[in-house]
Amino acid sequence: MVCGDCNHLPGVCHNINYFNLMEISQGFLVDAQFLNKRFCQIQSLVHPDKFGTNSLREQNNSAGWRSLTNKAYNRFKRYGSRHDVLNEEFLMEIMEHNKQIEEATNIRYLTNMQNSVKNKSEAKD
């Protein structure tokens, strides 16, 4: 998230997948020790003190990333909230597939899409 070469902090991506942000595999069980470690890593990377002399934009980006990280962390820490994250991700995936089906112009595209979904499903099993 922070550029290693120039220490630039990009704007917050509000539609980021919490699993990807926290670098944990998608599932209900979460390694609490790893989650805590990753949370501390991100908070350290985007801490406002590191961007105090940077532009106002980067200072705001820092606050935004800290806020987003707090949301993700709290969502995973609350055992029941994990279910919401999984359902949200699954719902977004289904909506995207439905959109692609509606916009499909030929049977080959639909067949490829069907195979892709099938392979993805088999990989999770």
Q: Which CATH architecture?
A: Orthogonal Bundle
SSE pattern = HHHHH
Number of strands: 0
Content of β-strand: under 5%
Which segments are poorly predicted (pLDDT under 50) over 5 or more consecutive residues? none
Rounded average pLDDT: 84
Q: What is the rounded Rg?
A: 18 Å
Total individual domains:
1
The main pleated sheet reads as: none
Structural class assignment: mainly alpha
For the record, the CATH class is: Mainly Alpha
The name CATH uses for the topology is: Helix Hairpins
Global outline: extended
What percent of residues adopt helix (DSSP H or I)? 55-70%
Give the topology, please.
Blueprint: H1 18-22, H2 32-45, H3 56-77, H4 81-103, H5 107-124
InterPro entries: HscB, HscB_C_sf, J_dom_sf
Keywords: Chaperone
GO cellular component, one term: mitochondrion
Descriptive overview:
It is a single chain. This protein has 125 residues and is mostly helical. The protein has one domain: Helix Hairpins (Orthogonal Bundle). Helix content is 66%, strand content 0%. It is built from five helices and no strands. Helix 2 runs antiparallel to helix 3 and helix 3 packs across helix 4. The protein is extended, with a radius of gyration of 18 Å.
